[in-house]
Amino acid sequence: MSVLIHRYSGTSFHFKLSARSAFAAPMGYWGGLGRPAPSARRMHTSFRHQKAAVLSSADALGGAAVAGGAPLGENSIVRMVMFGKPGAGKGTLSSRLIAKYDINFLSTGDLLRQHIVEGTEVGKIAKEIVASGGLLPDEIMVQVIAGKLSELQGKPWILDGFPRTLGQGKLLDELLKQTESPLSLVVNLDVSDEIILRRITDRWVHLPSGRVYNMSYNRPKVEGLDDVTGEPLVQRPDDNPETFARRLAAFYTSTSPLLQYYGSAPPGELGHPKLVSLAGSTSDEIWPSLERVVCELGLGLRAVPEDVVREVEKEVGERQLESEPEAHREGNSKSGNEKL
């Protein structure tokens, strides 16, 4: 017999879960953590699918009671974007959220590449522009994410890589306004320039797998060697003070107007998203505040069992989402558009 207590209403629920259908497969994941990167990655993908089985077991509750059993409104759905300087920890913190809660993660870079691979009309246009060395217009990027957002109507999501400029922010608001699903949360990670510079210069990577280590925290078991393969670690060419200074300047130029825009948004037209700035020197310091803000907003979020999430996030999450070079996300172009 298991017990769930809803954190807001205090209501307790007693139910029995089938170990085979809900937990056997996820718990079998642990045997793959020591495997080579491709195998471990497949195991992680399998777990992500199994997460739905775990959550569906809780569906027997008929939905946790919120506000005396009243149905959740649109304002309770997490639709969020996260901003932060290069190296601030957006990948790490997004990874924790999507590992622990039933939140969809949308990467504009991944969506764009999918359009190109599938040969859609948008993909064909994007491929030509990228092949010629051009920058994708904001309107193309909006079309890239529009279809996916329509599929997630009424579901929580985090949008990564867009918007990057004030113009893109306004276009995104127009798109969400058409579907009556405006942003509900804008998070700014407030980490000092000095701390981020130290993080970046202390960062080492295992290139074949994308695993990321840091000499200040998350050190490899053997200095200079990957934990799984024992192969040498290297530093990315752009992990240096000069490149960081350029990326930081680009961030301030493009993102400061965006934060002012969301911070001054009047109620009504833009849905008045909640803008919060979370300060800290590490992702571990910021995480409790981020989780609290998201859970207060998204009363309908469902969590994976804590012991399962803890190991997944520790072993896979932090080193996988942060493996994408931050330089690919910020400051690559004058307009901030995606460039493959």
TrEMBL record:
Keyword Kinase: yes
Coiled-coil segments on the chain, per record: none
Natural source organism: Botryobasidium botryosum (strain FD-172 SS1)
Any Pfam family: ADK_lid
Name used for this protein in its record: Adenylate kinase active site lid domain-containing protein
Taxonomy, superkingdom: Eukaryota
Gene3D superfamilies the record matches: P-loop containing nucleotide triphosphate hydrolases
Region of interest called Disordered, as start-end residue ranges on this chain: 313-340
Keywords: Kinase, Nucleotide-binding, Transferase
UniProt similarity note: Belongs to the adenylate kinase family.
Molecular-function GO term, any one: ATP binding
Keyword Phosphoprotein recorded: no
Domain Adenylate kinase active site lid: 203-238
